Amino acid sequence: MKRFWAFPTLVITILIVAMDTDLFVRCVGDPIEGHGRGRGAAAIRMALVLPCSPYLLTGSHSQFLKFIVLWLPVPFMVMNWRWAQRHKAYWDQVRAREKVRRAERAKQRKSDNLPDAERRTDL
Asked: Measured between alpha carbons, how far is 18 from 27 in angstroms, rounded to an integer?
């Protein structure tokens, strides 16, 4: 679980930053609140968090902290994704080698179980 902490952190931060009305007023010019939009407003706000995140740098210290927490997990997510790709490639190689070994053993067992007449090819 220690490798995958970055994704939940990013999702939770997006949810927290999406509640910052001041950010959306500075970024879009509209607080993007309900007004008949219902759940769509929340989805729009969450989608705009990352593009509007540079506006967090011009706000208070808490907004600067939100910016840091929002972007800090990204390099770790990239490193973990690369690790997962290498891990998958390694185990795919191991499975392929094992498949070849099993096929060779099955072929060997099959040839060991043949009667003597079928084994002789010089007749």
From this structure: 12
pLDDT digits (tens, 9 = 90+) for 84-113: 999 999 999 999 999 999 999 999 988 887
Q: Which amino acid is at 2?
A: K
Q: Is the pLDDT of residue 10 over 70?
A: yes
What is the full DSSP assignment across 22-73?
HHHHHHTSS----TT-THHHHHHHHHHHHHHGGGGGGS-HHHHHHHHHHHTH
Q: Which residues contact 80 (CB under 8 A, 6 or more apart)?
A: 3, 4, 6
pLDDT at residue 24 in the model: 84
CA distance 98 to 75: 35
